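Deliverable D5.2: sample structural annotation.
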Amino acid sequence: MPVHLEAEAICNNCGKKAPCKLDCDIMVRRTPFEIGEAVSGLKDWYFKSGHGAMACSEDCRNALAKDETYIGTWLPCG
């Protein structure tokens, strides 16, 4: 039986917050920096694998991607 926790995502660019759910099964098998794969309920949000960064929109994702800390592939949240 899957277990989901109530959580809140925060955009690393603008600080926007949104409620979401975390799949505990994926959290146990993955590192915390891949947490975006375990998130549900965040339509149009993105995460940066390996950094734990979250972006609430394409604009915020693009702004963060200009920072050398966040250069690379951004993936849509699950």
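Annotation notes: The mean pLDDT is 84. The chain has one domain: 4-76.
The annotation will be released with the project's public dataset once the embargo ends.
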